What we know:
Layout: H1 2-26, H2 32-39, H3 43-62
Amino acid sequence: MKTVTMAGYAVVALWAVGLEIAARRSGRVATLGAALCSALRWRPVRGAILAGWLWLGWHVFVRASWP
């Protein structure tokens, strides 16, 4: 199961890198930075990103069992 999860993350990361490269070459699609800057203008989006970071931090750093 861990291998499938890591493969899924790798696919998403490769897709994001490919989309960023395509955006920089064509100029028709917003880059990740431009899209994030545009989205962060709204308070609900900032709250959702904060909630996502809090959730990730809780599950990675607080609940993790470090050897």
